[in-house]
Structure prediction request, 287 residues.
Amino acid sequence: MKIIIIGGVAAGAKAAAKSKRELPDAEVHIYTKDNFVSYSSCGMPYYIAGDFQDWQKLIVRSVEEFEKSGIHIHTRQQVMKILSADKKIAVKDLEEEDWYFVEYDRLVIATGAEAFMPDFVNKNFKNLFKLRTLDDGIAIKSALKDVKHITIIGGGYIAVELIEAFIKNKKHVTLVEKSPFILSMFDEDISSLIQEYVLENSNGLLKIINSDTVTELIGDEYIKDVITSKGYGFDTDMVIISAGVKPVVDLAIEAGITIGPTGAIKVNSRMQTNIPDIYACGDCAEK
Ligand SMILES: Cc1cc2nc3c(=O)[nH]c(=O)nc-3n(C[C@H](O)[C@H](O)[C@H](O)COP(=O)(O)OP(=O)(O)OC[C@H]3O[C@@H](n4cnc5c(N)ncnc54)[C@H](O)[C@@H]3O)c2cc1C
Prediction:
């Protein structure tokens, strides 16, 4: 039995480990376009805060440990297509730029989610960041020492974790949130208290602009100014987009896999998709 898993962070790594435990003779492979597998995304804000210095502490299980337990890891390999009729995937080697095919008996899609990028954003700005992958976390941490003021677009969980990390590092932070309060997934009586608490504990370094949205980031290579829909403008040294996530489902859609009402891959209680021998789990799946 050859089990192929696309994506190797929380869901993909877990699917691989469980497959190997249940079927020790199975051949298990993880393909990921990233540099890393099996790491703690949840720990990244604490690394950025400086609570520990070595990002390797975020790695839950190394490539060598996976290989030792018989799970083969293929990093920097992007799956480009699922050919379900032939039970094959087409993979692009991001180092060599060439393509090849891999056959499977069972396929697990664990492609996760990606940070939502508003249309107005030019992704090439050198001081524009998102926090999703370990590479993102390492990049933010290494850029942090040169900045005095940081803008955060969006006020969800990750934004609040980053406020804490940045304030701890004595950075000035301006957060722009389109709702009347941050953490708007809570009722206003709760989110207003959270916002008050966060502001009270920010040593005067935090400004929150509510009920407004960023419409323009101005600069050449680096963003220098931020403009909001109400015409408010301010200087900044770094911008973090933290405006939500969306499930990564392009491969699945192209393969004819059914998508559910939230926009993620629809699975049944056995994590099966509508196509035989293709499963999905993690942030890309819904039930
Ligand atoms: C800063 C931060 C803090 C968080 N804190 C918490 C928390 O406290 N509690 C909590 O429950 N959750 C938290 N989360 C969310 C949690 O990390 C995610 O729910 C979890 O990572 C989802 O795992 P996943 O494996 O489904 O997807 P992902 O972690 O998104 O991994 C998917 C992987 O698939 C790869 N991939 C995608 N497409 C392809 C392709 N075509 N070919 C090859 N590889 C591909 C991606 O590059 C990625 O490596 C946090 C997330 C972040 C970013």
About this structure: The longest helix spans residues 10-22. The chain has two domains: 2-114+245-286, 117-241. Helices lie at 10-22, 44-49, 63-68, 134-144, 157-168, 188-200, 250-254.
